[in-house]
């Protein structure tokens, strides 16, 4: 199909919208959705069938451009005829249309300028089934029209002569006259179409709707846009009341009375406003209610209690807390991709300052990062974009560490609220207890729960709960996206809270309480518990706080405290292993207490294994095995078994026996369960299929009996499934995979490695069932994830799957090349699978020999598989993610 040509020069614009769509959506969304699909088909067919170019669709509206006015008129007439003749699957739809001609600025397939705005206002004045046009369009068409006279249109400076296509009778036009005082924004609203639609749906059902968000989120701009769209619906108009300058609650009534043109006879206008509005049908917008919230709540209660049809749309940083109120949280703009609203807003505002500004590969990621660090807040993004005339995106990003100075406005833009002034406004409305807690929350990294907030602020938990709830209601605290009754501060609010914390001299005390709270949370009593996944599941949400607290301890050279702290972290922060390992080793240089040294050594074992530092792993295991403490000796021996098993199964068994002997005093059964898991692991590593299957069943039973659910236990479950796959029963493996999926669901929540594990098994399941297409897709997902580098040591696992895929595809030479490119699998079950694939390809002995010769070569173990994986992804045309 040929590419559509974007019209330019003098054009005719056709704007359309569905009459009463908000009400229709509210009555029956499914039926309305069906009718709207039919409507879209009619509109697009009529427009494109008359050489029109649809440049925007927003909600129920179409915006199209035509090179010839006659084509635009013909398209409108054809569309109205088709709509009138349509058999609707849901409610019948009536569409209003407006036509205007002139030159507009075209940019990226979209159009801007007064001509476009006038076309939109002409459409808004029409009724369903009616087509309106301006004089330039009338002069260019020979169709029969009806003169409707001169009309005032919103945001159009001079009255406009309008004509109606055809001679049908309609009610008086919805021209402005004196039906609104809505401000005329200087810029267009971006990224809020879904918000506007949701708010209009709420207004169709409720008489009080409050938009709440932190300052700078664009609540006022959204309310104006909604009011503008709602204007045709309200017989007595849409009225905007700006309460920003009202400093005395007693002034709210006077501000409202002045906006709606009500004559004030009483000393308190609030007394008469509800009765005045009860006989009218209007939308009243109360903007910026937070500092006079009680007076606004009193007004709203009176209006709702008086009855009638008048509806209130309020904007505030906290809800009014009135019966019948519906709250809509205005969230931040999306920040992830180049087409997302936050990035589009930045570019739009930057172009207004610097017309030559545009995104390219060098700046797109930087702008995305800027918008993300500014939390998608429209005010902050606009202030940042206004600096592009003198600062590059890279310079802007660098300056965000001092964002309140960077985004202070400058020049005549000081008339616009600065980012600091906007947050100051919210902060000053808090009472002292709320201010104190808000400052303390600046101490956290990432999310926090109520208990942590109470501990860091130094207040009782019940009080902290009340204060956090209050701050949430004032849009100063956000809920964590993960839920679980956790909260967070937007980065901009966190920076503000930190500044206030320093000003009040409270930073050191809050930091110390933070360290003490998370030291307790990370505490592990015994070496055996360090790998306890149930414990990890309780605290993994505080990963960022744990790392931050450990950094503070290190900066203060509090080595003994840091040692105990670090011991509880490695198994739950695998993504942070590269940063934690040097900290553990620095701590080892300063700690003398033997027990703390043992704990640090075990942490070092976990971390070196995570980053595939096998020489470091063996050194740490050997040092731990040489401890004077029998339990530490056992842990060192147990971990050495992982490496020795590839070379000598008998010696690995002896090391596990040393671990069991060191825990003869264990009465919980957990040490025996852990040993059973490792026996299964070593059997898998040595390719003992029958032993791995039998020992997996023994280990699972032992773990369940001892309530010992470690990461090794989880891997044993998967090893059991892979062992069954290796023995050639895809049906059993399919069932086992279903069991594994349920088992891994909770673990995946706090360790993404487990998602890779289940994807590994899924790929084997699909390939074993001869479903090469589905298996290939599962392999692709796993391989792309491995190449992304998000988790270490996945490259060899991905190569094992790719080799099996190539084998199933019949490309045996490539399959052999791939399996011999592996270093070592990340887990016992992937090593087991690798052995089996190598056996099927006839190269298992060669692979074992290569491994024994290169066991301590990091390039062979890590870098070589990484290069092989990327080469195979490139050959297959798969993105690296």
Automatic annotation (TrEMBL):
UniProt GO BP: cyclic nucleotide biosynthetic process; intracellular signal transduction
Name of the featured protein: Adenylate/guanylate cyclase domain-containing protein
Parts of the chain that traverse the membrane: none
Superkingdom of source: Bacteria
PROSITE patterns, per the entry: GUANYLATE_CYCLASE_2 (PS50125)
Domain spans labelled Guanylate cyclase: 12-123
GO molecular function: adenylate cyclase activity
Pfam families: Guanylate_cyc, HTH_77
């Amino acid at each position: 199909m040929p590419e559509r040509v974007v019209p330019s020069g003098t054009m005719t614009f056709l704007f359309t919208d569905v009459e009463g769509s908000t009400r229709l959506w509210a009555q029956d969304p499914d039926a309305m959705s069906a009718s709207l699909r039919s409507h879209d088909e009619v509109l697009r067919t009529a427009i494109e069938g008359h050489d029109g170019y649809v440049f925007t669709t927003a909600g129920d509206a179409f915006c199209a451009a035509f090179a010839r006015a006659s084509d635009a008129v013909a398209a409108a007439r054809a569309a109205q005829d088709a709509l009138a003749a349509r058999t609707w699957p849901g409610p019948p739809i009536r569409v209003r249309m407006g036509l205007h001609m002139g030159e507009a600025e075209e940019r990226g397939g979209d159009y801007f300028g007064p001509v476009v705005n006038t076309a939109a206002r002409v459409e808004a004045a029409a009724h369903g089934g009616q087509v309106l046009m301006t004089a330039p369009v009338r002069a260019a068409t020979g169709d029969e029209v009806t003169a409707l006279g001169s009309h005032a249109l919103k945001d159009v400076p001079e009255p406009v002569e309008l004509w109606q296509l055809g001679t049908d009778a309609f009610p008086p036009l919805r021209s402005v006259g004196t039906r609104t005082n809505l401000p005329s924004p200087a810029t267009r609203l971006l990224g809020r179409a879904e918000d506007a639609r949701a708010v209009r749906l709420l207004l169709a059902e409720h008489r009080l709707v409050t938009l709440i968000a932190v300052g700078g989120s664009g609540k006022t701009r959204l309310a104006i846009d909604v009011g503008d769209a709602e204007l045709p619906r309200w017989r007595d108009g849409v009225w905007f009341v700006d309460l920003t300058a009202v400093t005395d609650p007693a002034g709210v009534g006077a501000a409202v009375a002045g906006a709606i043109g009500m004559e004030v006879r009483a000393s308190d206008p609030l007394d008469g406003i509800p009765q005045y509005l009860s006989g009218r049908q209007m939308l009243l917008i109360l903007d910026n209610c937070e500092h006079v919230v009680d007076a606004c709540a009193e007004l709203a209660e009176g209006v709702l209690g008086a009855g009638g049809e008048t509806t209130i749309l309020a904007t505030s940083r906290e809800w009014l807390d009135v019966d019948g109120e519906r709250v809509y949280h205005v969230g931040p703009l999306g920040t992830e991709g180049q087409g997302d609203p936050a990035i589009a807003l930045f570019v739009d505002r930057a172009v207004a300052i610097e017309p030559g500004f545009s995104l390219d590969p060098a700046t797109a990621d930087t702008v995305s990062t800027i918008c993300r660090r500014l939390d998608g807040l429209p005010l902050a993004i606009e202030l940042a974009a206004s600096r592009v005339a003198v600062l590059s995106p890279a310079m802007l990003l660098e300056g965000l560490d001092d964002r309140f100075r960077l985004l202070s406005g400058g020049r005549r833009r000081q008339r616009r609220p600065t980012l600091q002034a906007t947050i100051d406004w919210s902060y000053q409305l808090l009472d002292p207890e709320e201010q104190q807690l808000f400052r303390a929350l600046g101490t956290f990294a990432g999310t926090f729960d109520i208990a942590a907030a109470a501990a860091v602020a130094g207040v009782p938990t019940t009080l902290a709960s009340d204060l956090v709830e209050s701050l949430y209601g004032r849009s100063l605290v956000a809920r964590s996206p993960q839920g679980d009754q956790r909260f967070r501060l937007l980065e901009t609010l966190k920076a503000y809270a930190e500044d206030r914390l320093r000003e009040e001299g409270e930073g050191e005390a809050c930091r110390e309480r933070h360290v003490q709270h998370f030291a307790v949370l990370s505490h592990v009593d015994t070496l055996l518990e360090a790998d306890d996944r149930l414990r990890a599941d309780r605290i993994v949400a505080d990963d960022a706080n744990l790392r931050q607290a450990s950094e503070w301890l290190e900066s203060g050279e509090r080595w003994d405290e840091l040692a105990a702290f670090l011991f509880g972290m490695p198994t739950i922060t695998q993504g942070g292993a590269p940063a934690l390992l040097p900290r553990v080793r620095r701590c080892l240089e300063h700690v003398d207490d033997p027990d703390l040294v043992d704990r640090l050594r075990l942490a070092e074992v976990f971390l070196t294994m995570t980053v595939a530092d096998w020489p470091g792993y063996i050194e740490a295991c050997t040092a731990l095995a040489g401890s004077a403490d029998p339990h530490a000796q056992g842990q060192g021996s147990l971990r050495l078994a992982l490496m020795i098993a590839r070379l000598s199964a008998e010696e690995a068994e002896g090391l596990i026996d040393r671990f069991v002997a060191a825990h003869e005093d264990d009465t919980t059964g957990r040490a025996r369960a852990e040993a059973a898991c490792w026996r299964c692991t070593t059997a898998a590593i040595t390719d003992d299929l029958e032993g791995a299957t039998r020992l997996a069943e023994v280990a699972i039973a032992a773990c369940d009996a001892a309530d010992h659910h470690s990461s090794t236990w989880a891997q044993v479950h998967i090893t059991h499934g892979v062992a069954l796959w290796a023995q050639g029963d895809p049906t059993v493996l399919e069932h086992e995979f279903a069991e594994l999926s349920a088992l891994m669901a909770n673990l995946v929540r706090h360790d993404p490695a487990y998602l890779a594990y289940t994807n590994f098994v899924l790929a084997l399941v699909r390939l074993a069932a001869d479903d090469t297409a589905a298996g290939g897709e599962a392999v692709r997902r796993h391989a792309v994830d491995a190449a992304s580098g998000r988790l270490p040591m996945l490259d060899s696992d991905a190569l094992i799957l790719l080799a099996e895929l190539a084998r199933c595809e019949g490309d045996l030479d490539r399959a052999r090349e791939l399996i011999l490119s592996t270093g070592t699998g990340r887990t016992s079950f992937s090593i087991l699978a690798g052995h089996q694939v190598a056996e099927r390809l006839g190269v298992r002995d060669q692979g074992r020999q290569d491994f024994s010769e290169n066991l301590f070569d990091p390039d062979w173990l890590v870098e070589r598989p990484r290069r092989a994986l990327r080469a195979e992804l490139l050959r297959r045309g798969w993105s690296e993610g």
